[in-house]
Design a protein that fits this description.
about 750 residues, alpha+beta, six-stranded antiparallel β-sheet, single chain, five-stranded antiparallel β-sheet
């Protein structure tokens, strides 16, 4: 089929021109889209934070107003039946008002005003100074016919100099006997409470602290009672909420959020408001849009520089390519050929990366088939060694045993691999000397990503922190579990602290902390400012499957897992908490002392002897204890070929019988995980029978839960191993000072 003929220059030129336009338009479009998305996301997060804070402050404001209303009703009941003259003379009434005043933090004073506007009794002085408050807003409103709760605008109190507002109700008329008795429904004076606006503002800030939030309390007519702002109100003039607020309340009276510019200070703010119960009040929480969008501006600037740099680079490269479009077609063809080669190379690299990923995945299946791999490797090494040494004509008969064992091990390893790939691999406990400060510093980015935006993470790492012996992966898991629990205990945000310190526990302190021995410990603590725990929850916090979360949101294994990890490392954990006081979880890990790792005084190493030779220049006798027959076969073959005398045992009982009845062994090579008595217990009993006998431990399960441990520094041969590695470890142990074994078992 004939191919369409195109100009070798015109077609690439058009393509390059399109690329040139795209190199400018596309980065700009990406920049604009990402910037708009980030801005919307930050504003949405700010609105959610303001809404949560407004909900908290609404409850607080509702409680305050309800308390003031309750106080007014209590005072009204207390003076029922008393004439105003009796009220003014009664020191008992004054004490009653004073006691109520002293028990309420935001209250400035409580007072009773007669129908003529004269205050006859109050909580502050006795007898009252009898000021005339007939001109005050609350008095005029109640005298004019209002019967419900009245809240006045804020004003400066002459006696104290503080800003206050008044919450007042009509006094229930006193009718019947008495000179000033009034018929029901008539105006018989006022019961009033003056509230400290500045004190209430401080309480609001403590209830919902946030560096970008300001709060306010507004009457239904738009007059501010409390306003958290830098601009002071003009003397004698009330501050009014903006028209945006009044319009928003008109559409949604109870709850809402809007953005508007204040007529008082000219600042544009995002404002969330909530109506305070049935009272004519609204609580406001606001944040300036400039402060909210400051991180967005910084991010946008960086993004703009990156997009601009990328766009400029593309433009320059495209212009350079345009200058070269006039070259001969042969050059273009060579370029296309190079591009095809590059694609092939990239495909090969991708395939290589896939194979590497599969290799890493399968490499994770380790300890359960280490015995099988030991048999395979050992048998193959035996075959190689015999073939290299010059096999006789009947070499196949000599190699039949190792070949059969290698085949059995390979088949069993393949089947076990399939089973392990179907399930999650259990994480082994791999203890090492660790600095918890470095561990926390490495975890800090992950911890911050695990928290909400309204949660502040603090770290306080102790100076000169001691080393501790632990599994760093398990401790990191425990720390992450604690941080997530703390985050869930602070749904509205808060402060989370991670601290480390050296502690020395005496007998009483160790008993108070938990079931640990007195001594030196490294403490890792996680503290939150959340809801805390009740006493019954605290008592069961470490119990498996115990959780206070709803069904489906928690397994109850988080804290029990944390406790198990630190107990397995030789330490303990405790929780300090109380309802509304937050929670602190402390992990105590034992200090790693120098003597834990240095087991004997170094002595000059003797000159190495040939394999198979003991100290008396005779064949060294070795007791091989291994319950896996194929591993025992491979190890015994390698030792015998090296010139050692080998006795085999499949369990601890058989080994002890050989030690007691078969004479002296220079060395015992034993698996750690044996049926019945484990390798560590066998070594301790054998050492009591033969103090001069040395021991080498073999294991394919180092650190797995339930596997018996060996002393730090004990000779240890990890599976799988080659015959050469086995012989080196045996020869090295035989050449060491025998007295050092006493400190290892």
């Amino acid at each position: 089929m004939a191919q369409p003929v195109t100009s070798p220059v015109t077609s690439p030129m058009r393509s390059l021109l399109a690329i040139l336009v795209a190199s400018v338009v596309l980065p700009l479009a990406i920049f604009a889209g990402v910037a708009a998305y980030d801005r919307a996301r930050i504003l949405e997060a700010a609105e959610e934070s303001l809404a949560r804070t407004a909900d908290i402050l609404r409850e607080h404001a509702l409680r305050v107003v309800e308390i003031q209303d309750l106080v007014l009703r209590q005072v009204d009941r207390r003076v029922a039946g008393l004439s105003w003259e009796e009220i003014g003379r009664s020191e008992e009434v004054h004490r009653f008002l004073r006691d109520l005043d002293q028990g309420l933090e935001p209250v400035d004073s409580i007072w009773l005003t007669a129908p003529d506007g004269v205050t006859v009794s109050g909580s502050r002085f006795f007898p009252a100074s009898r000021p005339d408050v007939g001109h005050r807003e609350h008095f005029a409103a109640l005298r004019g016919g209002g019967t419900d709760l009245v809240i006045s605008r804020a004003f400066r109190e002459n006696a104290t100099g503080e800003n206050v507002f008044v919450v007042a109700r009509r006094r229930t008329p006193t009718h019947g006997a008495g000179a000033d008795g009034a018929a029901p429904g008539t105006f018989d004076g006022v019961v009033a409470v003056s509230v400290k606006a500045d004190t209430l503002l401080r309480l609001y800030r403590e209830t919902a602290p946030h560096q970008n939030h300001s709060v306010g309390l507004v009457r239904a007519d738009g007059v501010f009672l409390i306003r958290d702002a830098e601009v002071p109100p003009p003397d004698g003039a009330p501050q009014l909420a903006s028209g945006n607020f009044r319009a928003a309340v008109a559409q949604r009276p109870d709850v809402g959020i809007f953005t508007g510019t204040s007529a008082i200070d000219g600042v544009t703010r995002i404002v969330a408001y909530r109506k305070v119960g049935a009272y004519p009040l609204h609580i406001l929480v606001a944040a300036g849009t400039d402060a909210v969008l400051q991180p967005w501006r910084q991010h946008t600037l960086i993004l703009g520089l990156l997009c601009g740099g990328a766009s400029l680079s593309l433009v320059l490269m495209t212009l350079l390519a345009l200058r070269r479009t006039g070259r001969e077609r042969a050059a273009l063809q060579r370029l296309e050929q190079e591009a095809a080669k590059r694609e092939l190379a990239e495909a090969a690299l991708l395939q290589s990366q896939k194979l590497e990923a599969i290799g890493k995945l399968t490499g994770g299946i380790a300890h359960d088939f280490n015995n099988l791999l030991t048999a395979i490797i050992g048998s193959l090494e035996t075959i190689r060694s015999r073939a290299a040494g010059g096999a006789p004509p009947n070499v196949f008969a000599d190699l039949a045993g190792p070949l059969d064992i290698a085949s059995q091990g390979a088949n069993r390893a393949a089947n076990l691999t399939q089973r392990l790939l179907a399930f999650a691999r259990q994480q082994p406990l791999n203890r090492s000397a660790e600095d918890l400060n470095l561990l926390v510093e490495g975890m800090e980015p992950l911890l911050r990503r695990s928290l909400t935006e309204s949660t502040v993470l603090e770290t306080a790492l102790g100076d000169g922190l001691w080393l501790t012996s632990c599994d760093p992966v398990q401790v990191e898991t425990a720390l992450l579990n604690l941080v997530i629990n703390a985050r869930d205990a602070m749904p509205g945000g808060g402060r989370l602290s991670v601290r480390t310190a050296n502690v020395r526990l005496d007998g009483a302190q160790a008993a108070a902390v938990g079931d640990v021995t007195p001594g030196d410990y490294v403490r890792l603590s996680v503290s939150d400012t959340g809801t805390g725990m009740t006493a019954d929850v605290l008592a069961r916090a470490f119990d498996p499957f115990f959780t206070t979360k709803p069904v489906g949101q928690g397994t109850g294994l988080g804290l029990s897992q944390v406790y198990g990890i630190v107990r397995q490392c030789g330490g303990t954990a405790r929780i300090l908490s109380g309802t509304g006081e937050g929670t602190t979880v402390e992990l105590y890990l034992p200090r790693l002392l120098r003597e834990d790792t240095v087991t004997a005084t170094p002595v000059p190493a003797p000159a190495p002897r040939p394999d198979g030779v003991a100290e008396a220049d005779g064949p060294a006798r070795i007791l091989l204890v291994e319950d896996e027959a194929i591993v025992r076969f491979v190890a015994a073959e390698a030792l015998r070929e090296a010139g050692y005398e080998v006795e085999e045992a499949e369990d601890a009982d058989s080994a002890l019988a050989l030690i007691e009845g078969a004479g002296v062994f220079q060395l015992m090579l034993t698996d750690v995980g044996l049926p019945g008595l484990n390798g560590r217990q066998l070594a301790e009993m054998a050492h009591r029978l033969r103090p001069a006998m040395k021991t080498v431990f073999m294991t394919g399960y180092a650190g797995v839960a339930g596997e018996p441990s060996v002393a730090v520094g004990a000779p240890l041969l990890a599976k799988p191993f080659t015959p050469d590695a086995l012989l080196r470890k045996v020869r090295q142990t035989l050449d060491e000072d025998a007295s050092s074994f006493e400190t290892l078992v």
